[in-house]
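REVIEWER CHECKLIST
Item 1: Sequence provided? yes
Item 2: Single chain? yes
Item 3: Sequence as submitted:
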Amino acid sequence: MAAHIAIHKAEGAWVVRAGGAVIAESRNALELIEGDAPAVIYFPPEDVAMAFLDPSESRTACPHKGEARYLSLETKSTTLQDVAWYYDSPKPGMERIAGHLAFYPEKVTVEQL
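Item 4: Structure as written out by the authors:
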């Protein structure tokens, strides 16, 4: 694992809200802290309403975590493009976040309950 990245269980319950709906809620989320960047909450897929999310063609590469794939969210009134990302096969040391979803707080509400 990259020395500047820490992954641990997020304290308490976390929720993602968008378009008037709860998209994710979990007591099993992970918190990833990378350097001085704000912490990112990763939700296990079983705690996410996957029916609202559609795969995107977007991909990015992180030298520490690997290739990220993106998902878009269909709400009642719009599509939020590339609102979430995940790593299918993260790099060694990052396996804990494999398949977990993180959401952009600029596009949806991510908060601790």
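Item 5: Key structural point noted by reviewer: The radius of gyration is 13 Å.
Item 6: Recommendation: ____
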